[in-house]
């Protein structure tokens, strides 16, 4: 259940006419009163003798009783309360009880207060009501409405529990502003799929992902086709910025500009600048990686950076963890921007969902997120990835690691009782799983074919390696559809000179496997990273032919593996 306090107004009659009217798209059906401050309040929806003007005069009576100079300019208070789509349809009696609880919780009409504000609750649809009130009490005083929005949210959580409704995660004031009714109606009139503010927020978020500084950020905004204005101080320094969509104009035909802070709390220019501020120990804590030379290389860098971020989230200080989570959002934005069409939709959905998880009241210690931000920068500057070959396969590899990273973020947020952020991170993980299926389909199919053609002696050899390295998970792995692909990867690693048993043990030790959906897929990508194998199986054909340690039988492989068991898993 979502309560929403709208902007205060100055004309009671205007809001009443809207509530009892047909709506902008004839969506209001059977508007009628379900509750009010007085049981005898006239209802223009059900009583043919009652008029809008009568209801307005009754609600405005305490306001008009004041001298003109003491009347509040904005005296109309408006709260809508909406049930979730999956909730059952509530009766008028239920909505009446909910309305009374809301006006009591917000301070409009506390329980037992005989001189409280006057109010009325109108229902014109199955799933919500509107409460209108006037902000002068019957005793002439003003109501105490401090934090009424937060109190309305708290009461909504209690109502959900009492009525068995969907439990909505409580907010903490760090979310981006929800679309207003006016914005939604304007988007409908212009047949826009999304409101301009949402489009702008996404465009600005992608423009800042991995940007190295202010000039590059503003260049990206221009390249994205946005209209941009900078607020300049007398000294010449930029104090802030506003952006607009070229086709979004007001009644005067002028572009509608939004400041960064109106798009999202972390998109104001001062907050964006924090991303570019290095810490004193930034260079010592983060590894220096060579710049990526192509989409596949950038995706491998992103995978490595995500792995390092996982370790930080597991063991780091809260402010450092918050920085890693915020930078993860930049990586998702950059990956969505540069990936092929067959994965782009789900990656964009993952980035959009994770945007909510990137902000909380735990302030991010910027500078400690250098590796992830560099990964985002590499993804952007390496250009669009192809939907095939090494580009596609390394995309699957990166997504596989990012699923772990978003789940780790969800777990951290849940421990901190950041309910909305935890839910958003889980939603991002689901979209990433869908993107992974699209990205991994071809390389996994090729590996499956290769594994199915392995000689029985080698298949037995790799089966033994799995049982030795992962005795508790072996049966589960063998039952998975991806087992032949994992066996093919073990064979490639063996050909490259690695001991499969040792490599599997190291791969499994990197992170728990009990909660993953496909153990063989996770191990496969870990092995290919650790053994420095090409992500695309077709690229490994030449490497297999040139392998210096290729052997003819499992016995010879075991002898070679013994000599290499204690060596590091890198290309030889």
Please explain how this structure is put together.
The chain has 572 residues and is an alpha+beta fold. It has 4 domains: 2-163, BirA Bifunctional Protein, domain 2; 181-276, no CATH class; 285-438; 454-564, no CATH class. It is built from 23 helices and 8 strands. It has helices at residues 12-20, 52-64, 92-106, 148-163, 181-189, 196-208, 214-223, 260-263, 269-273, 282-285, 295-315, 318-338, 341-357, 370-381, 389-415, 419-452, 456-469, 474-479, 483-495, 500-509, 519-530, 540-546, 554-564, and strands at residues 2-5, 32-36, 76-82, 119-125, 128-134, 227-232, 238-244, 258-259. It has a 5-stranded antiparallel β-sheet, sandwiched between helices. A 3-stranded antiparallel β-sheet has the order 6-7-8. A hairpin with a 2-residue loop joins strand 4 and strand 5 (128-134). Helix 11 packs antiparallel against helix 12. The longest helix has 34 residues, at 419-452.
Which characteristics define this entry?
572 residues, alpha+beta, BirA Bifunctional Protein, domain 2, five-stranded antiparallel β-sheet, three-stranded antiparallel β-sheet, 53% helix
């Amino acid at each position: 259940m979502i309560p929403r306090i709208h902007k205060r107004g100055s004309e009671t009659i205007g809001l009443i006419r809207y509530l009892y009217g047909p709506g902008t798209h004839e969506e209001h059906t059977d508007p009628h009163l379900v509750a009010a401050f007085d049981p005898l309040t006239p209802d223009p929806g059900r009583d043919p003798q009652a008029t809008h003007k009568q209801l307005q005069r009754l609600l405005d009576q305490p306001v008009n009783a004041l001298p003109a100079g003491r009347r509040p300019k904005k005296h109309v208070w408006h709260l809508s309360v909406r049930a979730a789509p999956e909730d059952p349809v509530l009766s008028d009696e239920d909505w009446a009880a909910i309305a009374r609880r809301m006006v009591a919780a917000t301070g409009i009409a506390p329980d037992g207060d005989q001189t409280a504000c006057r109010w009325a609750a109108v229902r014109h649809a199955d799933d919500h009501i509107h409460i209108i009130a006037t902000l002068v009490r019957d005793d002439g005083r003003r109501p105490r409405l401090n934090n009424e929005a937060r109190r309305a949210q708290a009461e909504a959580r209690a109502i959900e529990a009492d009525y068995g409704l969907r439990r909505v995660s409580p907010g903490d004031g760090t979310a981006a502003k929800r679309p207003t009714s006016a914005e939604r109606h304007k988007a409908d009139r212009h047949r826009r799929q999304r409101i301009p503010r949402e489009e702008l927020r996404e465009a600005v978020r992608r423009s800042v992902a991995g940007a190295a500084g202010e000039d590059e950020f503003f260049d990206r905004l221009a390249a994205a086709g946005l209209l941009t204005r900078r607020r300049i101080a007398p000294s010449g320094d930029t104090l802030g910025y506003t952006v607009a969509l070229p086709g979004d104009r007001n009644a005067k035909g002028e572009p509608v500009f939004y400041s960064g802070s109106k798009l999202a709390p972390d998109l104001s220019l001062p907050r964006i600048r924090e991303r570019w501020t290095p810490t004193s120990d930034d260079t010592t804590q983060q590894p220096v990686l060579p710049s990526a030379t192509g989409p596949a290389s950038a995706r491998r860098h992103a995978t490595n950076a995500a792995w390092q971020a996982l370790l930080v989230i597991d063991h780091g200080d809260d402010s450092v963890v918050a920085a890693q989570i915020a930078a993860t959002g930049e990586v998702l934005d950059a990956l969505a921007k540069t990936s092929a069409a067959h994965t782009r939709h789900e990656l964009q959905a993952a980035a959009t969902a994770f945007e909510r998880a990137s902000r909380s009241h735990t302030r991010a210690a910027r500078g400690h997120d250098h590796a992830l931000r560099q990964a985002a920068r590499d993804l952007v500057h390496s250009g669009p990835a192809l939907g095939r070959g090494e580009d596609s396969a390394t995309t699957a590899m990166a997504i596989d690691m990012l699923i772990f990273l978003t789940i780790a973020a969800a777990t951290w947020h849940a421990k901190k009782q950041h309910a909305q952020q935890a839910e958003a991170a889980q939603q991002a993980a689901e979209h990433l799983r869908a993107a992974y299926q699209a990205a991994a389909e071809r390389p996994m199919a090729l590996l499956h074919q290769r594994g199915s053609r392995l000689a029985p002696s080698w298949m037995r050899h790799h089966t033994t390696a799995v049982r030795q390295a992962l005795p508790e998970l072996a049966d589960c792995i063998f039952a998975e559809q991806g087992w032949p692909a994992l066996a093919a990867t073990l064979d490639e690693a063996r050909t490259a000179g690695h001991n499969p048993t040792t490599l599997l043990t190291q791969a499994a030790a990197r992170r728990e496997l009990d909660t993953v959906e496909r153990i063989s897929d996770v191990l496969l990508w870990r092995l290919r990273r650790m053994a420095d194998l090409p992500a695309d199986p077709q690229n490994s054909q030449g490497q297999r032919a040139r392998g210096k340690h290729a052997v003819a039988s499992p016995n010879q492989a075991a002898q070679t593996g013994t000599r290499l068991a204690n060596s590091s898993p890198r290309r030889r």
